[in-house]
Design brief:
By secondary structure, the protein is of the alpha/beta class. It has 2 domains: 3-121 and 237-298, D-Maltodextrin-Binding Protein, domain 2 (3-Layer(aba) Sandwich), CATH 3.40.190; 125-232, D-Maltodextrin-Binding Protein, domain 2. The protein is 41% helix and 16% strand. The protein has 10 helices and 11 strands. It has helices at residues 3-23, 50-68, 80-89, 99-108, 161-173, 191-200, 210-219, 249-260, 267-276, 290-298; strands spanning 39-44, 71-74, 94-97, 113-118, 126-131, 153-155, 186-187, 205-209, 227-232, 240-243, 281-283. It has a 6-stranded mixed sheet, with helices on both faces. Strands 7-6-8-5-9 form a 5-stranded mixed sheet. Helix 5 (161-173) links the parallel strand 6 and strand 7.
C-alpha cells in the first residue's frame, strides 16, 4: 500500500474514532421505506495482500449494501491490533476477525457478539510448511513437530490464530517452545509472506492457515518444488464476523441473513465466496471461541 494511501487510512480512522466516540458510526434505525439508514463501517484483519483485500471487501460492501438497504463502506487497516483498536473505539462496526482477535475485540467491547462464520471455520486448520532442501520430512502427528527444534522458523502475524496462536499451542504439546528454534522465531505479518520467506530459504519452516495455502497452491503463486506441507493440525474454530452492540437485533439479523444467502450459483456472489474460500456462511456464537480464549490466556496473548 502506498504511503499516501496509508496516511489517508490513518486519518480516516482517527476521524471515525472521534465521531464514533460521540455517537457511534452506524445509525441502525429504519427509515419510512423500511430500510436501514446510515453507514455501516466494516473491516478485516490484514491477513493477505492489501490490494487483494481492498478489491474483494469492496465487492462485499456493495453486496451487503444492496441486501440490507444501507450504505456499507470497507475501511482497511494495516495491522491485526489496528483492527481490534478500530473496533474498540467504534471506528468499525462489523469486522472479520481471526479467532484470537475476535476474542480480544469482544473482551474490549461489552455486548459485542460473534454472528457469522464460513462453513469451514468450525473445523479450521493450519499447515506447517518447510523448504524441500532442508531435510525436514512430513510428520504424522503433533509429537512429530519436534523435528522443528533447532530450525529457523517463522509464524505469521503475532496475533494470528492460524499463523501463531494455535500453532504455538501444538508446538508446545510437542515440547517445542519459542526458545527451541535456531534464533528468535520470525513473525512474517501475513500468511502470504510466510510462504514467500520459506520458499526463499530465509526460514527453513513456517506455519500458516490452510485455506490461504490451498488458494495460493491453486493459483500457482509459489514454486512447489521449493516448499511443501509437513503437517496439518487438528481442527479448531477460527475466523468470524463480530458486531458491535450498537447494531440492533434487526440490523444484526439482516446482516446474518445477507451472509447466509450468498449463493454460489450467482456469479457475483460466487466471487465473494471464492475470495473467502468458502462454500457458504453459517451462523455462529461467541461461546464457540472459548478454546481460543483459553489458549490465548495460556500463551499470554490475553491477560485481562
Amino acid at each position: 500500500m502506498r504511503r499516501s494511501m496509508i496516511a489517508r487510512v490513518v486519518g480516516a480512522l482517527v476521524a471515525l474514532a472521534a465521531l464514533a466516540s460521540a455517537c457511534g458510526s452506524a445509525d441502525d434505525s429504519a427509515g419510512a421505506d423500511g430500510e436501514f439508514s446510515g453507514t455501516l463501517m466494516i473491516g478485516a484483519i490484514p491477513d493477505q495482500d492489501g490490494e487483494i483485500l481492498a478489491r474483494n471487501y469492496g465487492k462485499l460492501a456493495d453486496y451487503l449494501s444492496d441486501e440490507i438497504g444501507m450504505e456499507v463502506e470497507f475501511q482497511p487497516v494495516t495491522e491485526y491490533d489496528g483492527a481490534v483498536t478500530a473496533f474498540k473505539v467504534g471506528a468499525l462496526d462489523l469486522v472479520w476477525f481471526g479467532g484470537l482477535t475476535g476474542v480480544q475485540a469482544r473482551l474490549e467491547v461489552d455486548g459485542a457478539e460473534a454472528i457469522a462464520q464460513r462453513n469451514i471455520d468450525a473445523e479450521f486448520t493450519s499447515v506447517f510448511i518447510a523448504g524441500t532442501d532442508t531435510g525436514i520430512e512430513p510428520v504424522d502427528d503433533i509429537a512429530g513437530l519436534s523435528v522443528l527444534e533447532g530450525r529457523r522458523f517463522t509464524f505469521g502475524s503475532e496475533s494470528s490464530t492460524s499463523g501463531r496462536l494455535m500453532p504455538q499451542s501444538f508446538l508446545s504439546q510437542a515440547g517445542v517452545g519459542l526458545d527451541s528454534f535456531a534464533g528468535e522465531p520470525g513473525f512474517s505479518g501475513s500468511h502470504d509472506q510466510t510462504i514467500a520467506l520459506v520458499e526463499a530459504g530465509t526460514f527453513e519452516a513456517g506455519v500458516l492457515n490452510s485455506q490461504v495455502w490451498e488458494a495460493r497452491l491453486v493459483e500457482g503463486a509459489f514454486d512447489e518444488s521449493r516448499v511443501r506441507v509437513i503437517f496439518e493440525t487438528p481442527p479448531y474454530y477460527d475466523y468470524h464476523w463480530v458486531a458491535r452492540p450498537e447494531i440492533d437485533a434487526g440490523l444484526r439479523q439482516a446482516i446474518v441473513d445477507a451472509f447466509t444467502r450468498l449463493d454460489p450459483a450467482v456469479p457475483e456472489e460466487a466471487e465473494i465466496l471464492s475470495f473467502f474460500g468458502a462454500e457458504s456462511f453459517i451462523t455462529t456464537e461467541s461461546s464457540n471461541y472459548d478454546q481460543i480464549e483459553a489458549v490465548g490466556r495460556e500463551i499470554g496473548k490475553i491477560t485481562d
